Amino acid sequence: MYEGPVQDLIDELGRLPGVGPKSAQRIAFHLLAAEPADVTRLQEALQKVKEGVVFCDVCGNVSAEQTCRICRDARRDPSVVCVVEEPKDVLAVERTREFKGRYHVLGGALDPLSGIGPDQLRIRQLLARIGGAEITEVILAMDPNTEGEATATYLVRMLRDFPGLTVTRLASGLPMGGDLEFADELTLGRALSGRRTM
């Protein structure tokens, strides 16, 4: 244990996701050794994020304005909406350069054990958005885990009554360069059931 401000900094850094005690200590001592100008830039960047970043009124993605650049982009197809759990998932889909529609960020996934139910997510906003727009397809892009599966199943039940709406789910299966012998049964089973004609 260190004294005063150093230990306070280590404790605060250790609360960040993915930062353990050793990493927090390394970052803290890096900041202590850094030039004052570097620390000031980091401090200003953190302040700008807290003061200047908002969530898009339409999709819930992070934005510098009330409406994010994707929702403002007239070249995007407004009839197709990809539903994701978190803003970081938008970036993951965008990196593929395959999706040309719009997004809806739920703000998490259903997790009753942690107290996260439908009311804690942006599901109501999604339903209102679909009811008031000409959306023809909703792509569910949840994480392939228990919470993601529960969220996708819940959304399918909520969306099935919208006339003319197609609800699809991202295909899941084997990664490129992977070996069949190392694939778990669930992944291999999904790859088989999601196969397509070549």
Automatic annotation (TrEMBL):
Signal peptide range in chain numbering: none
Keyword terms: DNA damage, DNA recombination, DNA repair, Metal-binding, Zinc, Zinc-finger
Keyword Protein transport set for record: no
Domain Toprim: 79-175
Zinc finger (C4-type): 56-71
Pfam families in the cross-refs: RecR_C, RecR_HhH, RecR_ZnF, Toprim_4
Domain of life, per lineage: Bacteria
SUPFAM superfamilies: Recombination protein RecR
Family designation: Belongs to the RecR family.
Task of the protein: May play a role in DNA repair. It seems to be involved in an RecBC-independent recombinational process of DNA repair. It may act with RecF and RecO.
NCBIfam families to which the protein is assigned, alphabetical: recR
Official protein name in the record: Recombination protein RecR
